[in-house]
Amino acid sequence: MRECWQTNFSRGYVPIFPLPTAILFPHALMPLHIFEPRYREMMRDALSGDGLIVIGTFKPGWEASYYGRPALEPVAGLGQIRRYERLPDGRYNIVLKGLHRVRIHGEAAIERAYRVGDVEAIRERPIFLCVSEQQTLRDRITRLASQILCSQIPDGARVLFDHLVSVVTPLGSLTDVIAGTIDLPHRKRYELLTELDPVQRAHNLTRVLVARSRALCKSAPHFLFPNLN
């Protein structure tokens, strides 16, 4: 695979790759296989530019018009192609890294097979919480996530996750990485994406992880989930 570039972003027109159930969080990595002709065109255009792609999500009721232009939720994830491989038949394997939450203000009227959005980066709110309270939240979220991942991913991937959360320092960034990694209901993920207060997002994620852990307790050995409080 080839490495790609880095860039800063504030507002601009960016290709939109809408997906029914995927949410791209800042700092998270998302592997994708691109095979539809319209999105192969999107890839060619993105790779000839700054490598930016918006991962949008459909509003409920999209199923009847998937091959048209289903309505999109206003908040989405902006990602950048960090690695890619073009296959002999024109398909692509890529890895996106989440950069920012963005708001979709509208779509450009241009002649492309894919959709192009007028998007603006959304900045999260500052944290007004002492360091010790932040660390308590970090520890609880990380512990719950690790317990859940014991039943979801192989040992090697879990080691990689443990390393990732150990080097992600800000509380908001940690919640984004975990929300982008754990298998959570799609609408819960979208709610976490739209929450701009990092502390509130951490509390919301904690509640979701506790509920997920309790559900898994019913089908997993008790020792995997010794304490959900």
Topology overview:
Layout: E1 2-3, E2 11-19, E3 29-34, H1 37-47, E4 52-57, E5 75-86, E6 92-107, E7 115-122, H2 131-149, H3 155-167, H4 171-181, H5 186-194, H6 198-217
Helix pairs in contact: 2-4, 2-6, 4-6
Provide a descriptive summary of the structure in words.
The protein has helices spanning 37-47, 131-149, 155-167, 171-181, 186-194, 198-217; strands spanning 2-3, 11-19, 29-34, 52-57, 75-86, 92-107, 115-122. It is of the alpha+beta class and 229 residues long. 36% of the residues lie in helices and 26% in strands. It has 2 domains: 2-122, Archaeosine Trna-guanine Transglycosylase, Chain: A, domain 4, CATH 2.30.130.40; 131-224. The chain has a 5-stranded mixed β-barrel with strand order 2-4-5-6-7. It is globular and about 50 Å long. It contains 6 helices and 7 strands. The longest helix has 20 residues, at 198-217.
Output the keywords:
Archaeosine Trna-guanine Transglycosylase, Chain: A, domain 4; disordered C terminus; five-stranded mixed β-barrel; 6 helices
Provide the CATH top-level class of the largest domain.
Mainly Beta
Low-confidence stretches: 222-229
Alpha plus pi helix count: 6
Rough outline: globular
Using only C-alpha atoms, the radius of gyration works out to 18 Å
Q: What name does CATH use for the topology of the largest domain?
A: Archaeosine Trna-guanine Transglycosylase, Chain: A, domain 4
Q: What's the end-to-end separation, in Å?
A: 43 Å
The proportion of residues forming helix, as a percent range, comes to 25-40%
Number of domains: 2
Number of strands: 7
**CATH H-level homologous superfamily name of the largest domain:** LON domain-like
What's the rounded overall pLDDT mean? 86
